[in-house]
Amino acid sequence: MGLEQARDWLKKYELEDRITLLSESSATVELAAEAVGVEPDMIAKTLSFMVKDVPILILASGLSKVDNRKFKETFHTKAKMISYDQVEDIIGHAPGGVCPFGVKEGVKVYLDESLKRHDVVYPAAGTGNSAVRLTIPELEKCSGYIEWVDVCK
After folding, report:
1. In CATH, what number is assigned to the domain containing residue 82?
2. Range of the domain at 78
3. Residue 28 and which of 69, 81, 98, 99 are 20 to 30 A apart at CA?
4. Using 50, 70 and 90 to split pLDDT, how confident is the model at 1?
């Protein structure tokens, strides 16, 4: 799982060549930004939640924090992150490499408005040492997202 799933998914959109395997860990926003050589806010972090027994991913800019009030207004439930030890089983990627590319069936993907501050963002590619350089239109095209949401502070 992980990198191969992400690569196969991105290949459908002719974006697999955008994956960069890093010699350093990219498992956190700070590590990813340092490894890629960009500002932390340009990292598209992927947050995993359960909404009424449905797993969802929200991609947000690296320095953004989820606003519980906005989350509840949008999803009509309290924000409940998937526990670290369940992420891989539920989503299909291990923590540190979670991305919207090649996730398990039934996982819903949302993009947070915070990403729109940037022309280019860097989500993970299924591993804790990978990144994908994507413009916002490319991210829209290949993420399988349902809609843009505004759930961050």
Report:
1. 3.90.960.10
2. 3-149
3. 69
4. low
